[in-house]
Write a structure and sequence with these properties.
Blueprint (H helix, E strand, L loop, with lengths): L13 H20 L11 H8 L3 H13 L3 E4 L3 E4 L4 H25 L2 H20 L2 H17 L4 H11 L4 H5 L2 H19 L3 H25 L9
Antiparallel strand pairs: 1-2
């Protein structure tokens, strides 16, 4: 959460402010899901604004968005505090993502054209280059682009929209900085591309489910190691 964000709200652009608020919300969501911000911890608007290089306004708007997701709570006269997050919560979030992504991958494998496979492979090649270079920002962008391209092949717009909403809880900064996860991406994407080329829906479903659930295990292990659950409310 150190990269400064462009404060488009200063120009009075209402749309820009909404987009910036969503970007700030993404940074805070990542921090909460990866344990950098813990349940019960108060979030100082001015500190977040300074860290992200923006004003307080989009930070406040971002926190209101997160309040609607039950990621934070607003305590009267005290401010925003991180909501409880349990192992069950994380299991539920990843199970939903695995099921939705698996169904989309299966449909994509059944429908995908040779041209779409070539496009998907091209994105994957660029992702592998970013991984080899250790470019975390580029890895995040291309990993998202790869899965978006695959999901579009399923021709299931509403299901893809639901998955996109669910997958926003993935702490992308945490994953892109993990060398072991980056190696796992090579393996998992190789399996996905092979399933797509073979039009094997079942293999595509299992490959993407394994990819998502591997991410869950890595996150849970990380949270165990930092003693996150000692902060869990009962």
């Amino acid at each position: 959460m150190t990269a400064p964000l462009s404060d488009r709200s200063a120009a009075g652009d209402g749309l820009g402010r909404v987009q910036l608020s969503e970007e700030v919300a993404g940074h805070l969501r990542d921090a909460i899901m990866s344990g950098a911000l813990r349940p019960g911890e108060f979030i100082r608007l001015d500190a977040v604004a300074q860290r992200l290089g923006t004003s307080v306004t989009p930070v406040r708007e971002a926190l209101l968005l997160l309040r609607g997701e039950d990621m934070v709570r607003l305590l009267p006269r005290r401010g925003f505090v991180v909501s409880p997050l349990s192992r069950v919560d994380i299991d539920d979030l990843f199970d939903i993502q695995a099921d939705l992504a698996g169904e989309l991958a299966a449909r994509a494998a059944s429908r995908i054209t040779d041209e779409q496979i070539d496009q998907l492979a091209s994105v994957n090649d660029r992702l592998m280059q970013a991984i080899a270079a250790g470019d975390a920002d580029r890895i995040e962008v291309l990993e998202y682009e790869f899965h978006r391209a695959l999901n579009l092949c399923a021709d299931s717009r509403k299901l893809a929209y639901v998955l996109r909403s669910a997958s926003q809880y993935l702490p992308r900064h945490f994953y892109s900085g993990d060398a072991q996860w980056r190696r796992a991406v090579r393996r998992d994407h190789t399996r996905l591309l092979a399933a797509a080329r073979a039009h094997d829906a079942d293999a595509a479903r299992e490959a993407i489910r394994a990819h998502v659930l591997d991410g869950r295990e890595r996150l849970l292990q990380h949270l165990d190691e930092i003693g996150f659950w000692s902060d869990e409310e009962t």
